[in-house]
Design goal:
alpha+beta, Heat Shock Protein 90, 3 domains, 5-stranded mixed sheet, 4-stranded antiparallel sheet
Length: 519
């Protein structure tokens, strides 16, 4: 698959996931808005009904008080001689209009009581003289009922005027029973389908809290709802009911619990998609590396085979047998190329280690300082042949480690071989091997003064088949397996390895392994 195709597929899938995520979030937000609006409407409707109930309670209270105060007057009004002796009793109130004008209302019980008598002739017809006693009794009952109706109507008018003139001057604690308020709120919320806990406050027109139930809090501003009590009072004397719902958020978000699993699975799919795309790019890169590996391997294996074949043909020439020096040279070439071919085949076989989760290692306790000295003594001849130097600095006092001796020796050899392969031209190589302790670990560092590499290449140098780009230079051959083998062996021995390098200044490999403390 081409890189352009992978990129196109990644963009299309990523766009589809973003659109899906956007639609889910938008739908969730819309549902939250609807749920919030529904809650607000139910609460406001309930509080409005509570306000109406309190207004009814106030009207009923004033009616009861006025009826008790007027009980004696009603008894006098109901006597037969009321048409002959009527006392005049009046009440008045003044209403202030918003434009500043005043209206004075006067109510006279005498006039209200007399009005039915003045209209008596037009409403009820008097019976003729000499009519029956039954007709006379019926007429008296009608007059009595009409008088009572007129009185009740006058009483109601008086109550209304009294509410308008006097009620707003009374403190809110006298106008409202706080226990009834709580009862009304609970019943109205239940009627509107809200069975949620609440607490409330009543604030007077001076913004002073007159009553507050337990649990009221002002931290969540959006969970407090306000309702004006007795809205027909003068604007300067309006009292307020404030209701706090501590579980408002739980109620609003409660119906959206199914969105959370949906969102989680969407994110999981998105992560899986990203991982798949990254894996595709890695596989593409690995495929390219394998192609380079096959090309390099073909070249590396073909060269010694061609040399051996040529040398074998030379041995068939009888004239070579007569020259011992030429014969010795040809056989030496065959031996060297055979050894080189064997070494390259061994490198390829090391790939089998990467197909296993863990290599089969023969672990035993060895002294890291002794192993470093042994490898250095073997390698020093190669360094001196290039007019270089190989120094050792053994500072580690605790140096007993548990490793596979053969594989760990190969690890040190591979790093030293790379230091010589990637040396600077016309500059003698300088190698330094150090050991030191750091906590319960031993640190083995191998430093050179070679060509070095960029920091981004130093992070990838342990990947299989990876080779640091050198432009058009092909003077150093290899498969890109050496350092990958090094990292796998060190990791399987419970150690770590990293490369610190700077282009043009050299490279430093740092190996960390746990030490065995001597008891």
């Amino acid at each position: 698959m081409k890189k352009s195709t992978i990129w196109l597929l990644a963009i299309v899938m990523f766009t589809a996931f973003l659109v899906l995520l956007f639609l889910q979030v938008r739908y969730m937000k819309t549902s939250l808005d609807i749920r919030t609006q529904q809650f607000d409407e139910q609460v406001n409707r309930s509080l409005y009904s509570v306000m109406k109930e309190l207004e009814k309670d106030q009207t009923l209270r004033y009616l009861e008080e006025d009826m008790i105060a007027s009980e004696n007057r009603y008894s006098q009004y109901n006597r037969p001689q009321i048409s002959q002796s009527i006392t005049s009793e009046s009440s008045s109130t003044t209403i202030m209009h918003p434009d500043g004008s005043e209206t004075r209302i006067e109510l006279s019980r005498t006039q209200q009581s007399l009005q039915p008598q003045q209209q008596r002739e037009s409403v009820f017809l008097s019976p003729n003289r000499g009519s029956s006693t039954i007709s006379r009794t019926q007429y008296d009952m009608q007059q009595s009922l009409h008088k009572r109706y007129a009185y009740e109507k006058a009483l109601m008018d008086e109550v209304i005027l009294e509410i308008m003139s006097r009620a707003s001057d009374e403190p809110i604690e006298k106008r409202v029973d706080f226990h009834n308020v709580e009862k009304y709120i609970r019943s109205q919320l239940a009627y509107n389908g809200l069975n949620v806990p609440f607490s409330f406050q009543i604030v007077d027109f001076n913004n002073k809290v007159v009553y507050s139930s337990s649990g009221f809090s002002t931290k969540q501003k959006n969970a407090i709802y306000t309702q004006i009590l007795f809205p027909k009072d003068p604007p300067a004397k309006l009292n307020r009911l404030r209701v706090y719902f501590p579980t408002r958020s739980n109620y609003v978000y409660g119906e959206l619990s199914f969105f959370i699993p949906s969102l989680i699975f969407t994110i999981i799919l998105l992560i899986t998609f990203i991982f798949t795309v990254v894996s595709l790019f890695r596989q593409k890169r690995l495929s390219e590396m394998k192609n380079d590996f096959i090309n390099n391997m073909t070249h590396e294996l073909k060269t010694p085979v061609s040399t051996i074949s040529l040398a074998s043909q030379m041995l068939k020439d009888e004239s070579i047998l007569k020259s011992p020096e030429v014969f010795k040279h040809v056989t030496g070439v065959i031996h060297d190329e055979t050894k080189r071919l064997s070494f390259q085949v061994e490198k390829v076989l090391q790939m089998s280690l990467f197909d296993k989760q863990k290599a089969t290692l023969k672990m035993k306790e060895i002294d890291a300082n002794d192993l470093v000295v042994s490898v250095a003594n073997t390698h020093v001849l190669k360094v001196e042949k290039l007019d270089g130097t190989l120094d050792i600095d053994l500072q580690a006092e605790e140096s007993t480690i548990k490793v596979d001796e053969m594989h760990f020796t190969n690890v040190i050899f591979n790093i030293l071989d790379n230091a010589l392969k990637y040396r600077k031209k016309d500059v003698p190589p300088e190698l330094m091997i150090r050991t030191r302790n750091e906590g319960n670990k031993i640190i083995i560092s191998i430093e050179d003064n070679g060509i070095g590499m960029k920091k981004e290449d130093a992070k990838k140098v342990f990947d299989r088949f990876y080779r640091v780009p050198t432009g058009n230079r092909h003077d150093v051959k290899g498969f890109g397996l050496g350092l990958a083998y090094v990292k796998k062996i060190v990791t399987d021995m419970n150690g770590t390895i990293r490369a610190d390098s700077e282009l043009g200044k050299g490279t430093k490999f740092i190996i960390s392994l746990p030490v065995i403390t001597q008891k």
